[in-house]
Amino acid sequence: MITKKKIVEDWLPRYTxxxxxxxxxxxxxxxxxNYVQMFADKFGVPVHGQGxxxxxxxxxxITIVNFGIGSPMAATAxxxxxxxxxxxxxxxxxxxxxKKKTEVGDxxxxxxxxxxEGTSDQYLPPEIPALPSFALQRSISSTIIKHQKDYWTGxxxxxxxxxxxxxxxxxxxxxxxRAMGIDMETATIFVTxxxxxxxxxxxxxxxxxxxxxxxxxxxxxxxxxxREFVTTHLEIGIDSLKELASSGESVKHLRFEE
Length: 258
Known about the structure:
Layout: H1 4-16, E1 26-30, H2 33-43, E2 55-59, E3 62-66, H3 71-81, E4 88-97, E5 107-116, H4 134-146, E6 152-159, H5 168-177, E7 181-183, H6 186-195, E8 200-208, H7 219-247
């Protein structure tokens, strides 16, 4: 166990309950167990990893993994997934909307993320931007349109601080960042994906508007988001990866030619 390869090959099954050979080539990363259960119900497959750090399910060449919450766990998931060298990893996360024009239920397709979470500094110098893989984001964009939905593009502010909604100084900092939304994982996934040579993307669901005291997430409002928007969020994620797989395009190497 002196190489990263040996470590992650041992740890990925231990964390997820899935054998390496059971992983699909396309991965959905999520923060909540209900996404995994919905995926399993859709395809009629079992959920693995009950009682383990990460729950998972596999079907049609896609594996969904609930890694939990926060940038350290996001980094751990990406490191461990390097054991199976996925063709693409898509993060389906929730975020807080930071613009007056964003509404609960809106979709954000990030073009970059601000690295204010600290974890990614252990992988790359802070001046290096956190970026998704363009081809994957393009596939998500076209799939959203096929679902007759719209989306915002912009930058996501990623932080490790969870309880900040009461802090006016922090909220002013967010406004100055010009970010479209705030979460705890996107920048980490983009950076650790790059380091691990894993094509990565994200599609975020606006679950609250935390700059407004009346818009801060509550148990009741989160249940409404789950009831009204999560199914579509998951379906778009699944269809995006299916489209990418059927196209046969390389996510790592894409060049437009006239």
